């Protein structure tokens, strides 16, 4: 994990392996900030959808029980969202480096769309 001090806050950049390990142990809440269309086509099972356009950092829960880790398609939007949350008072927040593209590139499991039927299917 890479960390960057931003004022009195810490921005963490997690690898896909770190995210998968923490997610499988129930240690994090994974929030997908892509569009509903992107999410419907393919997503990490159990990741919550909260599109960047609708995100209000003040509405997010605290991180006493589980850490919040944002992700998007490439890591750009999730980093912007994380920085916005820091500007709005979060002391520590994280995002996934490389986004969903890196997740797929590392052959991590995800829910995709069967192009022949249009039905959702697990891809491993």
TrEMBL record:
Gene Ontology molecular-function annotations: thiosulfate-cyanide sulfurtransferase activity
Domain Rhodanese: 24-112
Spans through the membrane: none
Name this polypeptide is given: Inner membrane protein YgaP
Gene it is expressed from: ygaP
